[in-house]
Prior knowledge:
The complex is a heterotrimer. Chain A is an all-alpha fold. Chain A folds into two domains: about 1-60, no CATH class; about 65-270, MetI-like (MetI-like fold, Orthogonal Bundle). Helices cover about 75% and strands about 0% of the residues of chain A. Chain A contains 13 helices and no strands. Chain A has helices at about 1-35, 40, 45-50, 55-65, 70-100, 105-115, 125-135, 140-165, 170-175, 180-210, 215, 225-230, 240-270. Chain B has a domain at about 65-240: MetI-like fold. Chain B contains 13 helices and two strands, in the order αββαααααααααααα. Chain B has helices at about 5-35, 55-60, 65-95, 100-110, 115-130, 135-140, 150, 155-180, 185-190, 195-225, 230-235, 245-255, 260-290, and strands at about 40, 50. Chain B has a two-stranded antiparallel sheet. The longest helix of chain B has about 35 residues, at about 5-35. Chain C has two domains: about 25-135 and about 300-355, Periplasmic binding protein-like II (D-Maltodextrin-Binding Protein, domain 2, 3-Layer(aba) Sandwich), CATH 3.40.190.10; about 140-295 and about 370-430, D-Maltodextrin-Binding Protein, domain 2 (3-Layer(aba) Sandwich). Chain C has 18 helices and ten strands. Chain C has helices spanning about 1-15, 35-40, 45-50, 65-75, 90-95, 115-120, 145-150, 160-170, 190-200, 220-235, 245-255, 265-270, 310-320, 325-335, 345-350, 360-370, 395-410, 415-430, and strands spanning about 25-30, 55-60, 85, 125, 130, 130-145, 180, 255-265, 280-285, 300-305. In chain C, the strands form two sheets. In chain C, strands 1, 2, 3, 6, 7, 8, 9 and 10 form an eight-stranded mixed β-sheet that branches. Chain C starts with a helix and ends in a 5-residue tail after the last helix. Chains A and B meet through helix 1, helix 5, helix 6, helix 7 and helix 8 of A and helix 1, helix 3, helix 4, helix 5 and helix 8 of B.
Amino acid sequence: xxxxxxTNSKVIVTIGAWLxxxxxxxxxxxxxxxxFHTEGDAIKSPFAxxxxxxxxxxxxxxxxxxxxxKFFMNSVVISVGSTVxxxxxxxxxxxxxxxVPGKKTKDLLMWMLSTKMMPAVxxxxxxxxxxxxxxxxxxxxxxxxxxxxxxxxxxxxxxxTYFKEIPGEILEAARMDGASLTSEIIHxxxxxxxxGIASTLLLNVILSWNEAFWSLQLTTSDAAPLTQFxxxxxxxxxxxxxxxxxxxxxxxxxxxxxxxxxxxQLVRGLTFGAVK
Amino acid sequence: xxxxxxxxxxxxxxxxxxxxxxxxxxxPLVTTIYFSFLxxxxxxxxxxxxxxxxxxxxxxxxxxxxxxxxxxxxxxLGVLFITVVGGILLALLMNMPFWGQGIVRVLVIAPFFVMPxxxxxxxxxxxxNPVNGMFAHIAKGLGLQPFDFLxxxxxxxxxxxxxxQWLPFATLILLTSLQSLDGEQQEAAEMDGASVLSRxxxxxxxxxxxxxxxxxxxxxxxLLAVFAEIFVTTSGGPxxxxxxxxxxxxxxxxxxxxxxxxxxxxxxxxxxxxIVAFFAMRMIGxxxxx
Amino acid sequence: MxxxxxxxxxxxxxxxxxxxxxxxxxxxxxxxxxxxxxRMQGLMDDFYAKNPDIKVEWVTLEENVLRQKVTTDIATKxxxxxxxxxxxxxxxxxGKSGWLVSLNDLPEAWDKADLLPAIAxxxxxxxxxxxxxxxxxxxxxxxxxxxxxxxxxxxxDAPTWADIDKAAAAMTDKSKEQYGICLRGKAxxxxxxxxxxxxxxxxGAKWFDMDWKPQFDQKPWADTLAFYLHLMNDxxxxxxxxxxxxxxxxxxxQGHCGMWIDATVAASFVTGKDSTVADKMGFALAPDNGLxxxxxxxxxxxxxxxxxxxxxxxxxxxxxxxxxKEYTELVASKEGWAxxxxxxxxxxxxxxxxxxxxxxxxxxxxxNSADPTHPTVDPVPYVGVQFVAIPEFAGIATEVGQxxxxxxxxTTTAADALAAAQELTTTEMTKAGYIK
Lengths: 276, 290, 436
């Protein structure tokens, strides 16, 4: 009796959850479906579009116009590079803030977050001039540097809140055993903090992957990531929905697949200190 | 508790981050402040001259300045409201046992992976367009007059688009928080005959408070800078109905190429953002102590 | 973790190093993502065969992003590009600022004298040609022959606005989602203001008088806006205040529009393979009001070389190739005459093969009827048909465009929109020092 009610309610919840998931996902599904039609069919009414013949024409057009590989590699290097760099700089900072908190720690954290408040478009010209002088325009190095600085506050924040939940006694014990600071971090702390580090990595890779202002303004060709790939397909003179959909599918797919495989990781570590 | 030794070590470990972020803050800030006092227009090839407070005067007396603050606030608050309420409901749903949790979870977080420009184009043309859009076709199918979203309710439409993109983020954080909810406490309350609703309000809601404040803080930072969605869908209009502070700064900087006015606008935006952030951060700062 | 980190860092470093070495001269060409430019990228073998020591790196972007990047780069002397794709609005301003390399010394065979005078005039400052036109366009009326016939009307080759009004009324059947006329409504200096400024010329309106005083408080502008709002409110599609070129193209291709007044390049799209009304389209000159000016614009996407480029010779070789008669023939031989870049050379329109293209003559007539140096009925102190070639224009017109777009959406009245336009234009022009 009890079992059948749970099964029944599970069926209802399953239907409800799938329905909600489907609705939220629908616009993305639509991009995907549209990418397999001709430009002329893509602007028809939804049912007429679905009924029209499927084709990979849009993908071919996209591939002949721009080589996806180069943009993809740049996106990977920039988003992973800047996140990893931010982690390297941020982990020690977050560690010390979490385990050796001072009076000003909280203020320091807030200040770090507040560096993200500057509207990017307002500082474009100074940044552009700075990049020009230092020769960083259109280099991956330049974008990795910017990405690192953009990510750093969020990285420190996420790690700090995660580290705080690690019980201090364990560290005390390690110290009693005569572990040095470095080995304390490497052998005791890091394994415990790994889920937090992993989800920090994931979230920031996603944020960098989609960062569309600096990556568009400060690159031209050598370091241009997928955001520029997208910008070369949106709003030309003439129809572009199918090609844009194809390009978008190609730009979203890698990060979506990554998200798919790591969603458990992402959910586990994404606490932001929200979990008590 | 901490030794002198570890305190010093801690300083050294925080230092690189602090120095980098300080430079990242101060260098653009100082140059921007400097430019904001210049008469510097990119397209006018004459040496820039000192402008005093002119740029600030023109920006603050711009006919759309006050309205743009309201629009910015409306977008931030509107999106926060939808994502927090929607996120709680979604997280509750995702937290229940059902078949295919993993897949549904990916479906729900997927909008977070879509670049803002693309999602704005898709929503504008494929869904909200009053002739060709999906909503128009549904309305016509039901015998109703299609609604012209971006002309009749431009701000709400943009809030909807942005909320769709940020709902996954809120849901993820709230879900993580829900999963740490003490199951035993829940069961005990259930045994005591507490109703579903009262369990929700007396156990779940207090537990979620911290997660909600985190959602609000992080999202506010990103929402204050919403730009692509406005640019693609309404270009700040009709009229100035969807012109936000960041859109106003964009017009100054990249349409008028008036570096001076754009910089002044940037500085004003920073000040306003920090006022907003001040309250948000106090709130979360208090919550973090607990 | 440590291992992973190291591996990732190593990969980052390696990737940064990759792609450094190359021997030949590489020029970076920034271009807009329109069809004619995309086509050129597929025909580069011909250029490489003729110039084996030059390699071209393409940066293809949508118009708005391209304009931002290119402007930022040239104004800060960033030096990222060797060839820029810019329009008739930028060329005179940038040329005057000394930011562009003069193209007067392109080879004799390139034949500068062959360029259409209206187009070349817009790209020349003080006798120096600062950009080579890649393709030129004007605007014209595209209409549905079948619907006109059903209504018992014929479209004159050179219609008046009254003709347009009558035709729009006759072709509108909102219950069938059939709209008499589709026009741009999305705010922006290159969007609704391009159309409205060109339209206002035929109503005898102007942006500024000889003292640079804004003219939105004068009757011709009130008439222009009132007529535009009448057409769009009574015969236009819903949601028009967010429609730009592409939105109207989609509507027209699906047969929702009786008429569409827009860029001449649209002709090849509405008669192309994706159009459901390809065989039903007719073309006419942009309308007038009998005042001697038509409501059509003039634009040329052109190739220019920034003054900061270190590879001017290679850049010139490329520009000369891309805008030559030979390139036109190359496209014609590979893709047919209908696909050659239109609107730049007299010789193209003298070509018997090209004259068979249905919209060729109307495009040439439209281009020839636009005169950027005398755009309005009354004398004005500026150059430009659908724009005013001063650096301040883009910003001002974008804000004016927002007002007119609001009037179209019905959130403000025409009178309020004009008053606001007058006020903000006066403020900006005073600030910029035109009005003393």
